[in-house]
Amino acid sequence: MGRIIDGQRNNLIGANVAKRRKELKMSQQKLSDKLELFAVYVCRGSVSRIEDFSRTVTDIELYAIAKVLKTDMESLIDKNLINYE
Prior knowledge:
47% of the residues lie in helices and 0% in strands. The protein has helices spanning 14-23, 28-35, 44-51, 59-68, 73-76. Helix 2 (28-35) crosses helix 3 (44-51).
């Protein structure tokens, strides 16, 4: 059975989170602060690690990130990173 993502990336949303966050002119710290309103505690350093694909993301975190970034979860997922082989 093939992996859904390659071994060098731990999530499918890193680049799109960074892109959307920057579109909203939001710092990593501000994203972290706003996630706390959803009782999701992701420090600024963890936001950085999500964006560089070195940290996994839970479904609850994905939901909260999408809400804070005013987008839907599906649009954060980079389908080019999915490998079903």
